[in-house]
Amino acid sequence: MKNQIKIRPDVALLITRLIVGGIFVYAGWLKVSDMAMTISQFSMMGITITPLVYLVAYGELLGGLMLILGLWTEFAAFFLTIVMLVAFYLTKNFGFQMFGMPLAMLSGLVTILGYGAGEYKVKQNCGSHYVCLGGCRGVSNTPGVCQASTCAHYHKELVKSN
Prior knowledge:
- The chain is an all-alpha fold.
- It contains 5 helices and 2 strands.
């Protein structure tokens, strides 16, 4: 098929991050804004450790923001993946209407974990005062050259940050 409809991978990742992150921000805000209700709902599911409820509520809110911004995306996606695996496990016996949302969110998170944040994100520091063009995941010991082997711009020039 010659006339395929295609979307650039970086745009697709941005859209995925915005949707998945937005849902987590909304869900986290609902939990954080009424913690008494959230604690009660979690205890009905068998989770009675209050600090864990706070961790999940604030983790969803902040993790969603991190996904939207593209800041520490893989860390946020990994944390939220664990949350969604637990949510799926706790809801799997109650039918698709209960476990469908955690499963759909999990698929978006796995995509983000597999491909990273994409091009459109907040740049991360790659050393003391240099910013990697590819959003490096390491530290640069050589000024002006990315030394993070996991970075898309490994051994390439960095831009000087302000």
